[in-house]
Amino acid sequence: GPAAASTGTRVVRAPRGSERTAKSWGAEAAKRMLMNNLDPEVAEHPEDLVVYGGTGRAARNWAAFDAIVRTLDELEPDETLLVQSGKPVGVFRTHEWAPRVLIANSNLVGDWATWPEFRKLEELGLTMYGQMTAGSWIYIGTQGILQGTYETFAAVARSLGREDLAGTLTLTGGAGGMGGAQPLAVTLNGGAVLIVDVDESRLARRVEHGYLDEYTTDLEAALARVTAAKDAGEALSVGVVGNAAEVFGDVLLRHRAGELTVDIVTDQTSAHDPLAYLPVGVAFEDWKAEASRDPEGFTARARGSMAKHVAAMVGFQDAGAEVFDYGNSIRAEAQLGGFERAFAFPGFVPAYIRPQFAEGRGPFRWVALSGDPEDIRKTDQAVKALFRDNAGLVRWLDKAGDAVHFEGLPARICWLGYQERHLAGLKFNEMVASGELSGPIVIGRDHLDAGSVASPYRETEAMADGSDAIADWPLLNALLNTASGAAWVSIHHGGGVGIGRSIHAGQVTVADGTPLAAEKLERVLTNDPGTGVMRHVDAGYDRAKEVARERGLQVPMLDA
Length: 560
Ligand code: NAD
Known about the structure:
Blueprint: H1 2-7, H2 25-37, E1 50-52, E2 56-57, H3 62-74, E3 79-84, E4 87-93, E5 101-105, H4 115-123, H5 143-159, E6 169-173, H6 182-188, E7 192-197, H7 200-208, E8 214-216, H8 219-232, E9 236-241, H9 244-256, E10 264-265, H10 287-293, H11 295-318, E11 322-323, H12 330-336, H13 348-357, E12 362-368, H14 373-386, H15 391-403, E13 411-416, H16 421-433, E14 441-445, E15 453-454, H17 472-484, E16 488-493, E17 503-511, H18 515-538, H19 542-551
This protein binds nicotinamide-adenine-dinucleotide (NAD).
The site of nicotinamide-adenine-dinucleotide has 27 residues, from strand 7 and helix 9.
Binding site for NAD(+): 53-54, 131, 177-179, 197, 202, 243-244, 268-272, 277-278, 326, 496
Function: Catalyzes the conversion of urocanate to 4-imidazolone-5-propionate.
Organism: Microbacterium arthrosphaerae
């Protein structure tokens, strides 16, 4: 594209191996992870420093990138680099326990926290959009999406009182960049799934990349395939080309007539942006032209179709299916389209994820700085041995070992909770110290975690005490991680759901095999998920209170 032409063909890839050029592993790890985020295997548009999620960037511009890399190589083990929205702005003398890098991305004062204001300031070169893990240098490619989706469907199975999804049929829409993880996430959980997309090329791409088993343009044939798989208790994913607003209604009629039973219904069409949702009655070929010819008219038609789409979803719920919103704002858009019962079904966080957040469980991830996939294989074994009683976790690690193709530095993700994560961190540190692993391990997480985000349309939707928009929690999380020995800590605004709608924090630690690293790992990886339990205790969740009591988390007003 034109952007690639303007910046040339610069290719960034992290150095591999156990030799460092920086003066500490904290600084070396930050440098390698920044570079890894921009690896062409990892980033969506590396030439523009865009990692993922719209315009989520790793650094403000190439000059800032070069200055960050140079500064990290020169940084003393008792110094800290400050990064303001992707630009290195200062180096200060701190101490060995302090983070090597402190990052603040995309933050704006409340009344100014709008997309137009943000874009104006971005245009002036004063800020950048950091998303969640783009600007905090701990994105690991599509494995993160797949695992989160897998974990959600595993939680759906549990909420249905099942061990897995074998014998169930899921209906969903949207096989795009993120939605395309749904079919594989369902089959990894043992279920059958029908996924609807208007764009045949998306379904073909998912088949090519191993995320979807097969697709067809014939709904009848697709339904025959998935119902047979459901009846046989087999895992199978089938795509069908069609408009979800129509297909969902059609399948609902058959469900009501007793021709088939759909157990689970959700959707990941790009409903958050009405111009990216194809209304019924607009031909696929005319989509772009129609949307740009009359954006307002198109928006009204898209919302009208979303109203039908969501009405069918509510119909499935009324007919006994498990139905949830998968974070694409389709309920709000359908309501704007005139369907009043749009919020009859819940969002995925309150429905399935919050009970996990109450235990401090969230997306723990790690990366082998050696670049050796064998190091990840060994850590997979170690984590399975540590948590062998957790069947879902063991199943995920086995399946990920087979199904996940590494992008950039080899990495792994799995959900662990309070009083669990530090055990993995300490084990990895021992394995580095003993030479069993061929280089240090970087340990981080998504900002979508138990104690690190305030986001009223997603992670903190419908909190029990109404505290959805309280953003003190992620700030306390970042401060505590800084005080506990993290290698880098970040505070962002707007990730996931857009400017004005979230505040969130990230932390990364490094297992370099030293005793000091062990002390830091133990504190950070205990305290960080501990803030998730604390936040949910404060909001009144009983499970969080139990966890705090059982696992010894000190909350001064626990019994108040
Ligand atoms: P995308 O734009 O890559 O894909 C969207 C897909 O929807 C496209 O393939 C498009 O052809 C299809 N589509 C549009 N209108 C349709 C219609 N009427 N019927 C059938 N298919 C239609 O987007 P993505 O990255 O896959 O994300 C999808 C949505 O899910 C977004 O709204 C995103 O914000 C949301 N999302 C939420 C979470 C979360 O909350 N955890 C995670 C991932 C994605």
